[in-house]
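Anyone up for a design puzzle?
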């Protein structure tokens, strides 16, 4: 075989899209689609049509450029099998590894608090509105739900992981089905309220502030950063030795791009379908009631007068059940990451003895008591979920997803080739705007 023929064979092999690439595309997509998606339509639709159209324009760049930046950081390590912690330690020393451990823990733990509030409110609204039963004590409901999840986690973690992995795509299918089924109920209320003379760009209800806060929810809802490190390691081990690092990076970018397109298509279609079915006033009510949009839709169809369609009757009961399953799924997935992070922090800073003699079961139990205890306190306090996302969850995710890779590009020789690229400015601005939500909430 001539050199030219060998080159052509190599190029053909490189251009092939493998089954593993499709698997990872769906894996990234499935990781991002969780309970956070149920709050995005509320924030996006809260300001009406114009802000959500701007968010539609921003959605793909936020999802793609931010996750690609994190993937590039993971790819920059010298060890193809090294995860993000090892890569950061390679670039910034052990201090960097400690920072990553803190970020991972504090990026995931507030999400559990959010899900604790969400599942309590979702269950209580289903109990009172769909089942028409007497109101229950909030503290007891939250404690019961968390103890139920703790029991499942402690005695059936392996089964739980398997079940949750099977629930990802049925949940996505339900979202798509609901989005399509809502089309007959679309109305022009959100369009009728658009008045060019009344448009305000500033102020607490202005377009700029609404989009700014919406960016935080997009960072939160379109987030598959917890799995990026594992994804990059898998692709490096599969491609790097045969085709080189640049090809591996290009393949990772294509996979992230396709996962982002799928994610944006599903979530934005769901958001628009909800917005055209409800109204900005309905979204404001959902925010005030502190419930996910599916629960509000269930109550909305429950209150309809006259003869109801089969879909309306099904959604009245099914929406809350789908929301509960989605929240359980997200809670379990994030619990494992929180447990791992807290165990690491305890061993690093809270335990002075021989770490090899620490009982894994005892450590897991201590961490579980702290995680579930703090989640119960927050669930009982019932802070506004969107405010909690904007003030805690999204800013910490943004620091890991956006600002850490941008800092590494400026300081690390292995990433120097990415300096000066236009998308770096975009990713940095998104990260800063998301983090500045903390300041906005304090003012």
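Challenge accepted. My sequence:
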């Amino acid at each position: 075989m001539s050199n030219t023929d060998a080159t052509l064979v190599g190029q053909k092999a490189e251009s092939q899209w493998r089954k593993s690439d499709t698997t990872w595309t769906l894996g990234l997509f499935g990781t991002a689609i969780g309970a956070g998606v149920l709050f995005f339509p509320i924030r996006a639709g809260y300001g009406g049509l114009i802000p959500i159209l701007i968010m539609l324009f921003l959605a793909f760049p936020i999802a793609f450029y931010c996750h690609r930046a994190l993937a590039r950081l993971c790819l920059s390590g010298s060890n193809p099998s090294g995860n993000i912690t090892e890569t950061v330690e390679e670039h910034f020393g052990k201090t960097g590894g400690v920072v990553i451990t803190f970020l991972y823990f504090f990026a995931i733990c507030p999400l559990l608090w959010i899900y604790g509030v969400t599942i309590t409110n979702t269950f209580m609204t289903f109990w009172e509105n769909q089942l028409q039963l007497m109101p229950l004590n909030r503290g007891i409901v939250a404690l019961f739900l968390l103890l139920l999840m703790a029991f499942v986690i402690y005695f059936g973690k392996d089964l739980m992981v398997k079940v949750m992995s099977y629930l990802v795509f049925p949940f996505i299918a339900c979202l798509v089905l609901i989005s399509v089924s809502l089309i007959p109920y679309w109305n022009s209320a959100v369009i009728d309220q658009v008045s060019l003379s009344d448009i305000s760009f500033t102020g607490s209800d202005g377009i700029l502030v609404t989009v700014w806060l919406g960016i935080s929810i997009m960072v939160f809802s379109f987030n598959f950063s917890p799995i990026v490190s594992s994804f990059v390691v898998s692709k490096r081990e599969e491609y790097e030795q045969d085709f080189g690092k640049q090809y591996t990076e290009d393949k990772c970018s294509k996979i992230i791009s396709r996962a982002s397109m799928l994610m944006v298509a599903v979530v934005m279609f769901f958001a628009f379908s909800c917005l055209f079915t409800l109204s900005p006033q309905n979204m404001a009510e959902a925010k005030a009631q502190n419930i996910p949009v599916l629960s509000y839709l269930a109550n909305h169809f429950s209150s309809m007068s006259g003869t109801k369609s089969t879909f309306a009757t099904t959604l009245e009961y099914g929406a809350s059940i789908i929301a509960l399953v989605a929240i359980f799924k997200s809670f379990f997935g994030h619990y494992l990451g929180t447990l791992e992070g807290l165990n690491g922090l305890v061993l690093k800073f809270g335990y002075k003895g021989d770490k090899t003699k620490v009982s894994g079961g005892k450590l897991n139990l201590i961490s579980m008591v702290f995680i579930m205890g703090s989640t119960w306190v927050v669930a009982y306090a019932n802070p506004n979920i969107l405010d909690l996302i904007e003030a805690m969850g999204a800013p910490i995710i943004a620091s890991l997803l956006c600002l850490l890779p941008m800092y590494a590009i400026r300081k690390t020789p292995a990433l120097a080739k990415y300096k000066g690229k236009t998308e770096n400015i975009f990713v940095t601005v998104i990260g800063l705007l998301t983090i500045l939500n903390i300041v906005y909430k304090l003012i």
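A detail worth pointing out: DSSP finds 19 helices and no strands in the chain.
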